[in-house]
Write a structure and sequence with these properties.
8% of the residues lie in helices and 48% in strands. It contains 1 helix and 11 strands. Bound molecules: manganese (II) ion (MN).
Length: 133
């Protein structure tokens, strides 16, 4: 058994760049083991991932707040604390905070994550309205 104290988590405050838009506070909950990576990510309002997919799928456990998620070709959905999401292998999607709320989730990612293009402000603003209905 290994207990990993918070001070040992590989946190990157306010990370932005080729994976996230806006301010997010991710930390690695458990280093990658046998193709399984567990990260907890705090999204500020409107912050979100880039489009991406997971080789063998991903489980999201929403711990706090309210956020948005969209699979390519599908509607934007509101996600809330207590929700569990399964993103199947290879399905392109993004997830993040809602326009007016933080959102914290633990992400259990299976296999390699393939990162793609940014979710633009126009895309996010258009779909966020849809997601609020
Ligand atoms: Mn994902």
């Amino acid at each position: 058994m290994i207990i990993i104290p918070p001070k040992n988590h590989a946190g990157i405050a306010g990370k932005a760049g080729s994976q996230f838009t806006g301010s997010v506070f991710p930390y690695m909950t458990m280093p990658s083991t046998d193709g399984v990576t567990i990260n907890t990510v705090n999204f500020t309002p409107c912050a979100r991932t880039y489009w991406h997919s997971h080789e063998n799928g991903q489980i999201l456990l929403v711990l706090a707040g309210r956020g948005l998620i969209q699979a390519e070709g599908g509607p934007v959905r509101v996600i809330r604390a207590g929700d569990t999401i399964w993103a199947p292998p290879g399905e392109r999607h993004w997830h993040g905070g809602s326009p007016d709320s933080f959102m914290t989730h633990t992400a259990i990612s299976l296999g390699v994550t393939a990162w793609a293009e940014e979710v633009t402000d126009d895309q996010f603003n258009a779909v966020a309205t849809e997601g609020e209905r």
